[in-house]
Each structure stands twice: as C-alpha cells, then as structure tokens.
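tl;dr need the bound structure. longer version: we got a ligand (magnesium ion) that a collaborator sent over and nobodys looked at where it sits. i said id run it. heres the input, straight from their email, havent touched it
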Amino acid sequence: MLELRIEGLSKTYPNGVKALQDVSLTIPTGMFGLLGPNGAGKSTLMRTIATLQEADAGAITLGDIDVLREKDKVRRLLGYLPQEFGVYPRITAEAMLNHFAVLKGIGNPKERREIVGALLRRTNLYESRKQNLSTFSGGMRQRFGIAQALLGNPKLIIVDEPTAGLDPEERVRFHNLLAEIGENVVVILSTHIVDDVSDLCSQMAIISGGRVLMSGDPQAAVRELEGKVWRRIVAKQDLDDFQRRFTIISTKLVAGRTVVHAVGDSQPDPSFVPINASLEDVYFRYTRANGHDAHPEQKGQAA
Ligand code: ADP
Ligand code: MG
C-alpha cells in the first residue's frame, strides 16, 4: 500500500514566519485529516507535498519517490485542489474540464470525452455541464475542483480546506463525494472544521503553529479522553474565575448560555457533570494546552 512519509520538514518564510517546524508524519492509504486553526501551516505543508514550493529542511517520500526531488514523478500521480482555486471563467464546466484533461496529457478525444463525462457524473455536475463556471455555487465549484483533481487517476489526492464556505447541505454532498474516492489512494484533507475529520477520516493529525501536536486514529484519541471531560453552564461574569481554577478546553454559547468543557481525571468540582468526549474536545485540548488560540468559531460554520 502506498504511503507518504514526511520527516523533519521545516519552512521559514522570508518574513520570519516559521510555518513548519520539524514536521514528521506518516500518512497511509485512505483518508487522512490534517486539522488545525488558521495559520497552522496546513496550506504550506500541502503546497510542499504538491511540489509547488520548497522546504528549508526535511524529506518527503511517496512510496519510493523522493517527493522534494522527483517532482515530475509526483505530479503524474497527484490530484490537487488548492485552497484558492480561483478559476471561474465564463466557460462551461465541460469545456474547462476538457481543457484540464488536455493539460493532463489525455490526448485521445474520444477517450477524453468519456473521462470528462464520467467525472462530471461522479461529481453530480453532468446536468450543469453546459453552464458557465462563473455561475456555479460554492458547492458546485468545489465539486468541479474535485473533478479536475481526479483527472488521470491520481494516487495522491490533496484537498486544501475544501468545505470552508459551504452550507451544511453542500458540505454533506461534498463529504459523500470524498468518501467515494476510494481505496488504494492517499487522500489528504486539510480543514479547520472538526466535523470534516470525524465524518471522513480514519487517520488524522492536529497541527498548530507549524508543529504536529498529535497524529493517529481519531477514534482512539477520543477514547483516550473518555471519562475526563466535564461540562457545566457558567455565568459570563464567572468565566474568568473558572478559567483560572480549572483546565477549560472550550467555552461556547449554546442557546444563549455559556457552556464550558473542562478536562481532568476526576470531577473538577461538584457543579460539573461528566459527558462523552468528542473529537472537538480532543482538538481543543491539544490546541489550547499548547498555548495556541484554537479557531474561535463554532462547529459547522465557515471561515
Ligand atoms: P493554514 O493553511 O493552516 O492557514 P498557512 O500555511 O497558509 O496556514 O500559513 C502558515 C503561516 O505562514 C501563517 O502565519 C501565514 O501567515 C504564513 N504564510 C503563509 N504563506 C506565506 C508567504 N508566502 N509568505 C509569508 N508568510 C506566509
Ligand atoms: Mg490554508
């Protein structure tokens, strides 16, 4: 099975920002979630794997390919949906996808027509194929982005924050599409939305401040927290006091009231009730505990 290995990858931008700091990850075949707040270094890592930018130090291998040196070999196996896709011209979806297929080297017109048609069907855009991309909704654009990323049967698929800005219905559609991409392919999905990972990914990493804070099986990470998450409702004026006294991993408004989650091996105080741990608790525990401000937005909302 194909495996992507990242070892000791570091990148400092000319302005001094350390976007990646000694990142090591093993990414197996299947759907891998790269979860982290804005500015964590996700896109930097994705672009580096996609051979679009250089690292300062470290190594990446895909199977027996040296990714940082054998760029052409990687590109032949790669499907990439960048965070800023930005190509929505006044040209139909079908014509644009056909154009991308030419660029991918699919030279035979009959074969190309079949491949383009099949991808448009797979991404549920066949009915809209004669429509200009400039008129597509956010969800349709992202599905088109996946269609172009799937051209040429890639073995490594990188999708960078594909669900940001999608409404809940579009997100579900997009999740279903990603879930179908299938076996024998390494898929890396970067996101700041915990639900993307819990819905889709069998392996994950949390990154923040350019560092890997955890990696592994999301369900195992949740199990590890089981029995250690506590909840209560706090009045606004008491919040600071609670944050000083307890290990608070998240505070959020639920129906106008502030609900806090704390972690601890035992009940923090009698006012807290035990709750089931979730991947969101795992995420906040890692990102908060390391002094990084986790993304303040709530579940299900876009950036
Ligand atoms: P993410 O995708 O997780 O939001 P990025 O990889 O885009 O994170 O950015 C990581 C950090 O590097 C951020 O602090 C960002 O401002 C900075 N950064 C990204 N690209 C550049 C660049 N071209 N030049 C300078 N700083 C950059
Ligand atoms: Mg990004």
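gonna send this back to them w/ a short note. The first strand starts at residue 4 and ends at 12.
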